[in-house]
Amino acid sequence: MELEENYFILKAKSAHSNDPYAAKAWILTAKTLYPNNFGVQFEAYLIEKAANNYEEAAKCLSYIVMTFQNQPPELWKEVTQLTSALRILEGGTTSEQDFYVKMFQHISYEVQHKILLLTVNHSDNNLDHCKLMLLLLKRFPQTIPTHSPTLKVETFRYSYNITDPKYIDFNITKLQSLGHTLYMNVLKDNIDLYANIRICFEANKNQYTTEFVNKTISVCRLIHDRRYEPLLRAIHLSLMEYSPEFINKCPIQKKLYFTRMENFQTDKIPPVWPEASAKPRLLETLLQGINNHNQFREILIIEALPLINASPPELPSVMVNRIMAICFEYYICQMFKENCDLTTINEYWTKIFEVLDLCGRIMKWEPFLPYNRNVSKDIYWQRLIHIVSSTPPRPSENKQILFCATFLFTMALQEYMSSVRMKVDDVELDYVLVEGFKDNESKRRKADALLEPPRITVYYPCNKETPICFVTAAQCWQLLHSNEILQIDFGQLLINVPVKMWLNRFLVDLAVYLGRNDEALNILKDSKLSNLEKNLRNLSFTVSQPALNIQSFDFLMKILGDMPTHSGQWVKNLSMNCPGRHLLVLPLSRRAIIQYCTKILVTALKQKVMNDPTCTDSLLGNLLVLLQLDWPEEQPLAEYIFNIIQTKGHFIYLQFTNYIICVDMIEQFMSMWYSHGGEVHLEFSPAQANLPSKRIGTRGADKGVKDDFKQIIKQQILKCNDDIETLIQHFITQEHMRLVQNIFEK
Amino acid sequence: MDYPHRAHDALLRIENQIASKKQDHVLDLISEFIFYEKKSDSRKYGNNKMQQSCGLSLIQEFQLVVVLCEFYERPGEEMIRNAVFLSLFEGSNPSRLKVLTKLVGTAIASSVGPILSAAGTWIQQLGPTNIFCMELTQRLIEDFIVFSNKGPEQLRTLPSISPRFSINFLACCTELYLKDTVTHQLLPPPPPALLEVFTNWVQDYPTLCIDAQPQLVLPQGAISMPIVNPLPGLMRWCVLSPISQSAIDGSAYSKLQLAILKCLMQEAKQIGDLPLVPPINSIALGAVIFTLKFKASEIAKVGDPDTDQSMQLSLERLAQCIQIAIQSRSLLDNVPQLVCRLKKLPKNHLLDIVIKSQNL
Questions:
Q1: Range with the lowest mean pLDDT among A268-277, A326-335, B314-323?
Q2: Interface contact flag, A21 B353, Cβ < 8 Å
Q3: pLDDT digit string (tens) for A516-561?
Q4: Mean pLDDT across B229-236
Q5: B259 pLDDT exceeds 80?
């Protein structure tokens, strides 16, 4: 039988050159004689293609694709040419490729999809297949949205339940078993009623909703396109519902179509639009391919996701979770690349949140918040808490909390990390979270204090949001560790994301925040923080202790020997009156550090003074020196000390000339010396000690003493503009042994 | 009163008469007031038929055409209009035929649907082989094809204006050309322009010849004649043209052949629940086969019909037509007998294949 077919093909080919009509007649005859012969059918296709008849060629090709299950090489060659023509962007096509594109548009969707399947089956290149699918979905959009509630309807809206067959007035005719064509009778002229038809299909309810949007109709075009048959039926049905004898003249082509009465059969309408499954299939292929090929990731995120954003299809939750995780990893990795400035980071976060929103819509989660850098992280946290409390958490199934918490954590942590390392006037300024001081001498127990959330003071120019960022991150961390499954999932998410360097720092800070000093110490040992930071933190741990110990003093000395170059600004509010703990985001600038160290010493010394007014002059004097740094903050304490001196009646402090430069203190001493008629014996220099007379009062005899004093005072006043910072640093360094004595002696 | 008004009044009266089913004086009215026919007394010749000669001048003929156009453009019942038309132009009067020709010609040129529809009814009722129909057709062809350049253009969209007229006109034309006569002389082929017009008709209106046509709307008591499908005639043209001596084949007939084949593959529309009449009947094909056989025997006298190119071409075309007609269920009756007759034709590969496929 092969010979017979070939006879026809030969005849057709030979006739083709001088008499194309005869050639077609031959092939037409052959098609009826040998409907299952590939050669004949393919020849018919070639003839139509040579004559540039898109529609006819489309019919032939569709028949071939649907009839012949094994693909002969000629067919495959045609299909390759077709698909490569489709891949070319608009405008760059040859006339032949143009033909392919136009022909493809006349092919019904199912056949289109089958052709694409051919490309997948023939090559192992899933990537090409995905790219092609994307191209198709973009270039030939089937304008069938899933239920879109915001469509503006100008005229009418109907819905028809297709499980209820009715008699309708239209004609379905079979056309070579490739589909149905619909003819609609047009009798009355009523153009007003017409509109562009938008069809909404709800698969679960088996309903077509037709909506008339504006006042021109393209029914005639729809009629020639087989893909829209079920639509037209639905349209017509809805028209019939409106008025039983309603049949309208199509205003565009002004043709008359004929109809007849027919029973409407529900099985002729496909239950699900074939297009509906194209998108999930594409996503699945992309996800599978990601393991092998990086390009799939970009195609998925950059091209495929925007495509489904407008009308997301139903997807299994596993797929959605995977998509979410992949997007997160991708964008965070992008953020860590060089040349990533703030605007780009904002963009990436916006995209991450958009994907979160998309996945949320698919999974029907309660919406989170959109990304906005200016919104405080606290607001996000409140929202997260709201979601956690309203939806019963089933972390094995519902990953919403996982994702929201992870994103919030990462976002907050990122901002925190960028805040604690700033550039101020070309100088890098770091910040460290340390324990602060408390004013109130409450007898509250430590445990009570821990129940209150710590108060964090932050200093300009550090971002005021920094504590909030940190606290949010800490809260998210705790939330993500509150449940085993969450913990595991969270760990998984973080594996592929380069936030490790942040995590070390964060964990130290977290330990500090939670008051878990031992934990923090352990982490500190392994961390890569600078010595200064380490020492500072070590020092800060002791602040929370009731009393200073020798070791912390060591730390203090080390710190003073390792000061940063940047001077910075003075900080205030080192000490606060708050119920819970007080923490500081301390800038690593000289002044701040000095203040901090000084404050520690002052606190220790103050304790001593308060408990025992009979403490040594040395102690009192040293304390006075230290108080100068934050003057006039500590004025009440200074006054207290002066009272003690007054009561004591004498005060020997040989370091006076070196270190007391505060004018107020000098004045106070002066008034003590002069006003009380020499009741208080002040000895500030060794020279004074050598004076023979220690009694005051003999006229003339103590003139020398008075003169000396004046001299000393005068000299000191000249020093009052000295740099207090250097002075104090110098003092502590020089006098540290005496300070140790002061603090630790009984 | 001048002629047009009189004719108009007469028409109205005739219409009323027909509507009220009083047929008595209609014909007389027509004869006297519309065609101004003088009755010549031929009783002495023993002739019962009244010979009438039309007494209209050329101008009056023209005016009559105008009046009739106006009359038919008024809305009216189709049955009455058909009845009027039939009454007007029944009978064997040649002068009336002249008027009819002019009327139909005008209707074609100005696309007056109702007149064409009535004319189509007239042709169908009389039958395409009726001498009057054939004469009308010939004159129309002369007017539109032979003596006119723009004629073909005007004819081109005729099927959309009046399918009934087009089909009947086609049927008449097929009777005029490339038909075998009693003396086995083939009638000459149609003029190329006409061929082109018909080819375009079959191409542009593929379902014209196969759609079910509504029955003729005739007054009560009249039996409406079935339509004669022109497709077998067109097929015959294609098949016989290669062996016709005076036909220049070229691709014109292949084009027509292809158009016919495609047309057969189309789906026809039905009216109501009546079954479709298959367009091809075996009798018409049988006639074609007969002609071919005769020609074959003629060729055999001087050469070999199995190798004669034109004969082979004819046979191939025939085979194609038959194959597709059977495949598309356009030919349903007496297929086995037909196939048997095919076997008696000269050898042709395609024909053999078709015969074989039918025997399976």
A1: A268-277
A2: no
A3: 877 777 777 777 777 888 888 888 888 877 777 888 888 888 888 8
A4: 89
A5: yes
Provide DSSP, B28-97: HHIIIIIS-PEEP--GGGT--SPPEE----HHHHHHHHHHHHHHHHS---HHHHHHHHHHHH-S--HHHH
Residue B278 binned pLDDT confidence (cut-offs 50, 70, 90) = confident
Q: Hey, where are the domains in chain B?
A: 3-271, 281-360
Contact between chains at B319 and A29 (C-beta distance less than 8 A): yes
Q: In what order do the strands lie in the sheet with A207-212?
A: A157-161, A207-212, A197-202
C-alpha torsion angle, residues A250, A251, A255, A259 (rounded to 10): 10
> What distances in angstroms separate CA A127 from CA A275, A287, A299, one per listed residue?
20, 11, 9
CA dist A626 and A729 (Å) reads: 10
- Residue that has been written with the tokens 């829209």 in this structure: A228
Q: A217 and A197 in contact (C-beta within 8 Å)? A: yes
C-beta neighbour count of A689 within 10 angstroms: 11
Task: Return the bridge partners of A429, or none.
Answer: A422
- Are B324 and A29 an interchain contact pair (Cβ–Cβ within 8 Å)? yes
Please indicate whether, in this complex, the C-beta atoms of A21 and B258 are within 8 angstroms of each other: yes
- Mean pLDDT over residues A100-113, rounded? 77
Q: How far apart are CA B161 and CA B115, in angstroms?
A: 11
Query: Which residue, chain included where needed, has tokens 């038909």?
Result: B179
Q: Quote the longest CA-to-CA distance of chain A.
A: 150
Pairwise CA distance, residues A131 & A129, whole Å: 5
Query: What is the full DSSP assignment across A147-169?
Result: --TT---SS-EEEEETTS--EE-
Two tokens, residue B40: 């010549």
Residue A156: predicted pLDDT:
24
Distance CA B94, CA A175 (A): 48
pTM of the predicted model as reported, rounded to 2 decimal places? 0.58
Instruction: Please state which of the ranges A125-134, B177-186, B329-338 shows the lowest mean pLDDT.
Output: A125-134
HSE of B148, CA atoms in CB hemisphere, 13 A: 16
Mean pLDDT of chain A: 71
pLDDT reading at A46 higher than 50 = yes
For chain A, give the number of residues: 746
Classified as helix, coil or strand, A291 is coil
Residues of A in contact with B350 (CB under 8 A): 29
In this structure, are residues A609 and A623 in contact, taking their beta carbons and an 8 Å threshold? yes
Give the whole-angstrom CA distance, residue B331 versus residue B264.
10
Minimal Cα distance from B327: which residue of A?
A32
Q: How much is the pLDDT for A304? A: 79
The predicted structure's pLDDT at residue B215: 79
Judging contacts by C-beta atoms under 8 Å, the chain A residues touching residue B353 are 4, 7, 33
Burial of B135 (0-12, 13-18, 19+ CB in 10 A): middle
pLDDT of residue A454: 80
- Contact of B357 with chain A, judged by CB distance below 8 Å, is answered with yes
With H, G, I as helix, E, B as strand and everything else as coil, classify residue A512.
Answer: helix
d(CA B197, CA A721): 117
Residue A262 has pLDDT above 50, yes or no: no
Exposure of A199 in the CB half-sphere (CA atoms within 13 A) = 23
Question: How close A29 gets to chain B, by Cα (Å)?
Answer: 6
Is pLDDT larger for residue B42 or for residue A648?
A648
Of A25, A33, A173, the CB nearest to B258: A25
Model confidence at A221: pLDDT above 70? no
β partners of residue A197: A212
d(CA A220, CA A183): 9
pLDDT, one tens digit per residue, over B55-74 is 778 888 888 888 888 888 88
Separation CA A175–CA A177 (nearest Å): 5
